[in-house]
Design a protein that fits this description.
Blueprint: E1 6-8, E2 15-16, E3 30-32, E4 37-40, E5 53-55, E6 60-61
Parallel strand pairs: 1-3, 2-4, 3-5, 4-6
């Protein structure tokens, strides 16, 4: 997973919370998770990654957008 740069998992009907496995994807630049049924809060650690694109639309997230995503 260390060399993974682009991950598209859209429209797969995944459920539950976003797993913290993405935390280990240090070279990830594009993470597309739209069109699933992810629940809970958006993980703040996503803001620690060097993402150029983060697509989270069409899910069931709750809570506020983590400050780390704006930095």
């Amino acid at each position: 997973a260390k060399s993974l740069a682009i991950l598209v998992l859209s429209d797969n009907n995944f459920t539950g919370a976003v797993h913290d496995i993405f935390r280990r994807c240090l070279n990830l630049t594009d993470l597309i998770l739209s069109g699933n049924n992810f629940l809970g809060e958006i993980p703040g650690y996503l803001g620690e990654l060097q993402l150029v694109t983060l697509e989270l639309s069409k899910n069931r997230f709750s809570g506020k957008i983590p400050d780390q995503l704006w930095e």
